[in-house]
Amino acid sequence: MTGKITIDGSMKGRLIMKDTIKQETVRTTFDNCQLQHLYESTVDITAPDKLTMFLLRLTTYFQRRTANWIGVPTSYRQKTTKVSTASIGVTGSTTLREGDLVQVLPLEEIRKTLDKDGNCDRMKFLGGMERFCGKEFRVLKEIKFMFDEKSWRIVRLKNAVLLQDQICDSKGQYDKEGCDRSCFYFWKEQWLRKVIR
Amino acid sequence: MAPKGNKMRLFKIHLQKGDLIDVLPLEEIEKTLDNEGKCENLIFMPGMKKYAGKRHRVLRRAQLIYNESLNKMVRMKNTVLLEDAICDGKDSSGIEQCQRLCFYYWKEHWLKKVT
């Protein structure tokens, strides 16, 4: 099927998404993404699945409680509430390209870019991304457009990249524990520093 | 293409993470598809053709996935993700711009375990 993408009139329309919001609406008509047909092949979860998910949530909950109790800062929610709003919007971003070597900023520096909801430019920094802090990775792709399942259209992203080998394992995601989708994490350029050697 | 309802190779393989597999040749995959290009309701995308006949490693079994549009978890059967088998949007007309790099979903019936 042939698709046609047209940019929505004045580009003023804004979407509100849960995790990745800084986009401008792009209208599109297409029917050629596996995600559009994926749910036809799915069935409702079973009682053992619900039990497994519940246990995973419980495990994560106690891990966080234990970590907080012994003073290991793992929960971005708790830390971000302490960050003053003056630090929101720290930039210093560069335009990263595919193949660039980058270092993920330390967690403390990333937290300075987050607002009280744990977002930077309305993109959420997830708990599962904390383990990559301080490490070096290569940029896999710059993200400018992506298909948004919720609004069922192509949306635009700004200053976001994917990094190699950084796949979501769903740990620490309350309502998504046990998800096997293996999506790449989205990274704001403000959370990365280009490594030049 | 096989008529709708044609059931081919519908035996269970139960691939696990790390298993080495060969993707079946395109002709064999097409035998498993109905007239809508689906096997057990999972569509075989044009972008997946380039992986036919090649060797890959299983990244993960896709058993539970999060349905973003319905905000709930759903279950999949006999489906796996393969390492480096990623949709770059280029082979899907109308969605060329998508840069999300999702992993393709593969029915086990399209794969053969390397022993």
Overview of the structural elements:
The complex is a heterodimer of chains A (197) and B (115). Chain A has 197 residues and is α+β, with helices and mostly antiparallel strands. Helices cover 20% and strands 25% of the residues of chain A. Chain A has one domain (4-194). Chain A is built from 4 helices and 10 strands; from the N terminus they run ββαβααβαββββββ. Residues 1-30 and 75-93 of chain A have low confidence and may be disordered. Chain B has one domain. Chain B is globular. Chain B starts with 19 loop residues before the first strand and ends with a strand. β3 of chain A pairs antiparallel with β6 of chain B.
Notable characteristics:
heterodimer; A: 197 residues; alpha+beta; seven-stranded antiparallel beta sheet; two-stranded antiparallel sheet; 4 helices; 10 strands; 20% helix; globular; B: 115 residues; five-stranded antiparallel beta sheet; 35% strand
The helix/strand series of chain A, from N terminus to C terminus, equals EEHEHHEHEEEEEE
Mean pLDDT of chain B: 84
Largest sheet properties of chain A: 7 strands, antiparallel
Sequence of strands across the biggest β-sheet of chain B: 8-7-4-1-9
- Cα-based radius of gyration of chain B, to the nearest Å: 14 Å
Given the structure, what is the number of helices of chain B? 1
Largest interface in this structure: A-B, 49 and 42 residues
Quaternary state of the chains: heterodimer
Distance separating the two termini of chain A: 46 Å
Overall tally of structural domains of chain A: 1
Residue stretches of chain A low in confidence (pLDDT < 50, at least 5 long) are 1-30, 75-93
Mean of all residue-level pLDDT scores of chain A: 72
Q: Tell me the Rg of chain A in angstroms.
A: 18 Å
